[in-house]
Design brief:
Layout: H1 2-23, E1 29-34, E2 39-44, E3 49-54, H2 64-94
Antiparallel strand pairs: 1-2, 2-3
Length: 110
């Protein structure tokens, strides 16, 4: 029965560390670019867009659709990159707390 108590204690520690790590995701950032760097979008681990940088040469009425497409592409690139970084951040925060159990997938928590 002591093993079960230890396991419950570990789970509480995992929950606490996950909560702390998730709160710190706002500090994890990544920038995606499109159009050879003419549009850059920075997002954080919470998938909030922090900034958008646009090369002044792109700001012409006739280039509006292209600019919109580049913003979407850069945003998606940044979100994809920050998801990877955030997953690693959360993995490190809980490293060593849970045994390596085959089939146990905690990706849904991240």
């Amino acid at each position: 029965m002591m093993n079960m108590m230890d396991m419950f204690g570990k789970m509480k520690e995992v929950q606490s560390r996950m909560k702390d790590a998730q709160q710190n995701l706002s500090a994890v950032t990544e920038t995606g670019d499109a159009g050879a760097g003419m549009v850059k979008v920075t997002v954080n681990g919470l998938k909030n867009v922090l900034s958008i940088e646009i090369d002044p040469d792109l700001i012409k009425p006739e280039d509006r659709e292209m600019l919109q497409d580049l913003i979407v592409a850069a945003t998606n690139k940044a979100i994809g990159a920050v998801e990877t970084k955030a997953r690693e951040h959360l993995r490190q925060a809980t490293e060593g707390l849970l045994p390596n159990i085959p089939g146990l997938n905690l990706d849904g928590l991240m």
